[in-house]
């Protein structure tokens, strides 16, 4: 299999003058971009870095970040992308844990770099004159490219992603060139991408979704439109201005697009393919997107940093909530919740833990320096995801939550997804998240946190649930109206914050007493 550097050369050789990347007023063709990538690759090696060394990037989605990612692939270096909002202690931990040999940053992340003792011990390459840099990114760009500009092989490590670390220290997920290329090829195939597709590069390049978009566009000689910070209005302008043909976003960003006052006046007709991942999409949003875009293809991707694609449903709106079947490079199962072995399977319709075959072409091989995490998640050649779901009578997968999100109320196991799907269809509900809140009688009670878009009260929502097919023990016992649903930087609902009371309740809408039986 080709490594990623040679993969990029394929696109340059096929389509040297095709537009490759846009960032504001900057537009580079594949041939022009290659020249900058080769310069940065040479500049990194001129610093004394050796193939296999780790380079940490704490940057927004800008052309320099995308260039650095590709330069590391050419130079045989391992890129370690980190959230540009990372705090000094997070940065310090990752620099030391990964054994980082150089760091690239910009003004927005300068404070974290300056306050990280570990970062101060290595070369810090600054963009835009950020304070604390030992040299500038422009210095790398001016380096003389090397004759043999591809230093990596398919079996070498390409990048190391860090998981979000919501329940402890983040875990490093090292991934090889061949795993990255296989995942990108599958992404192209599963989204039916054609040559010359154009996508909005908004999902962060420290996240699997952002990396997917970046690599997939190169495979089809496509255009990557950089979006440094999310703005629904600017995103709509970029879609129209660059004739974007495919979107791959988390549900939250789709919600923002539809809610933007200028949505109807912007031309989104060029978008023919919608894809989403990172979180479940409720039934209401699915319906609204189907009506607004009328896409040729509407794909639900379900995966993780460890195994990029577990499953895919290419007809997301046809069976709302379905994550479909196993992806091209994957096998999956639903094991019983108490399973000690991957062979102890849940029955059809029974919730269990979703597991994936580690022999798949996209699968990682284990966490970086974390034997404890490997022992918990890797069993007999299978990856235990920590996600809960079930297979329906047709064999389609439904993801219903996380093991850690399971609500245990009155001895019943309750997943939030079913409740959220019902409430999302109420016309006065903008967003909804369900979480378990400690309760003296029930252990936990089911509480729905609702961001409204109309006049509604708890009684009306309870009546709505009673009139649905939601079983009674899953019905929320309380409704809290909130200004916003707390989410991670990539749009995942942070239920632990809701359970802990970390939210802003709306004072102008009723917050009722618990619903009576």
TrEMBL record:
Domain AMP-dependent synthetase/ligase: 10-368
SUPFAM superfamilies: Acetyl-CoA synthetase-like
One Gene Ontology biological process: fatty acid metabolic process
EC number: 6.2.1.-
GO molecular function, one term: medium-chain fatty acid-CoA ligase activity
Pfam families: AMP-binding, AMP-binding_C
Domain AMP-binding enzyme C-terminal: 419-492
Record keywords: Ligase
Highest taxon in the source lineage: Bacteria
Entry keyword Chloroplast: no
The keyword Ligase is annotated on this UniProt entry: yes
Family: Belongs to the ATP-dependent AMP-binding enzyme family.
Protein name: Acyl-CoA synthetase (AMP-forming)/AMP-acid ligase II
């Amino acid at each position: 299999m080709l490594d990623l550097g040679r993969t990029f050369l394929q696109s340059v050789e096929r389509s040297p003058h095709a537009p490759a990347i846009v960032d504001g007023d900057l537009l580079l063709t594949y041939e022009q971009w290659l020249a900058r990538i080769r310069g940065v690759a040479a500049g990194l090696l001129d610093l004394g870095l050796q193939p296999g060394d780790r380079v940490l990037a704490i940057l927004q989605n800008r052309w320099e970040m995308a260039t650095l990612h590709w330069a590391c692939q050419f130079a045989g270096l391992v890129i370690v992308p980190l959230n540009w909002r990372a705090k000094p202690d997070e940065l310090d931990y990752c620099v030391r844990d990964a054994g980082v040999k150089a760091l690239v940053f910009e003004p927005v992340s300068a404070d974290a770099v300056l306050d990280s003792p570990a970062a101060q011990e290595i070369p810090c390459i600054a963009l835009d004159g950020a304070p604390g840099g030992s040299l500038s990114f422009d210095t790398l760009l001016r380096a003389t490219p090397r004759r043999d500009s591809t230093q990596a092989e398919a079996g070498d490590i390409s990048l190391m992603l860090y998981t979000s670390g919501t329940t402890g220290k983040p875990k490093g997920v090292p991934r090889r060139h061949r795993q990255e290329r296989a995942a990108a090829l599958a992404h192209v195939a599963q989204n039916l991408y054609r040559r010359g597709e154009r996508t909005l590069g908004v999902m962060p390049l420290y996240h699997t979704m952002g990396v997917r978009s970046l690599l997939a566009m190169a495979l089809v000689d496509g255009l990557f439109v950089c979006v440094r910070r999310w703005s629904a209005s600017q995103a709509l302008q970029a879609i129209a201005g660059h004739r974007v043909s495919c979107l791959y976003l988390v549900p939250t960003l789709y919600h923002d697009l539809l809610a933007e006052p200028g949505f109807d006046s912007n031309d989104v007709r060029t978008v023919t393919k919608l894809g989403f991942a990172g979180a479940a999409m409720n039934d209401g949003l699915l319906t609204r997107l189907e009506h607004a875009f009328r896409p040729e293809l509407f794909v639900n991707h379900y995966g993780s940093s460890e195994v990029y694609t577990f499953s895919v449903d290419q007809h997301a709106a046809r069976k709302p909530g379905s994550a479909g079947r196993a992806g091209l490079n994957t096998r999956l199962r639903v094991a019983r919740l108490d399973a000690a072995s991957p062979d102890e399977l849940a029955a059809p319709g029974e919730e269990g833990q979703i597991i994936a075959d580690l022999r798949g072409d996209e699968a990682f091989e284990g966490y970086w320096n974390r034997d404890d995490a490997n022992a918990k998640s890797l069993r007999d050649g299978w990856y235990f995801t920590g996600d809960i779901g079930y297979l329906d009578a047709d064999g389609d997968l439904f993801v219903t939550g996380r093991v850690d999100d399971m609500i245990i109320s009155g001895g019943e196991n309750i997943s939030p997804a079913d409740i959220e799907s019902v409430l999302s269809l109420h016309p006065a509900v903008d967003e909804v998240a369900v979480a378990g809140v400690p309760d003296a009688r029930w252990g936990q009670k089911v509480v729905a946190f609702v961001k409204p878009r109309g006049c509604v009260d708890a009684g009306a929502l309870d009546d709505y649930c009673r009139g649905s097919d939601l079983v009674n023990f899953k019905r929320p016992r309380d409704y809290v109206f909130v200004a916003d649903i707390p989410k991670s930087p990539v749009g995942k609902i942070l239920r632990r914050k809701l359970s802990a009371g970390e939210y802003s309740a709306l004072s102008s809408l009723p917050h009722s007493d618990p619903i009576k039986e």
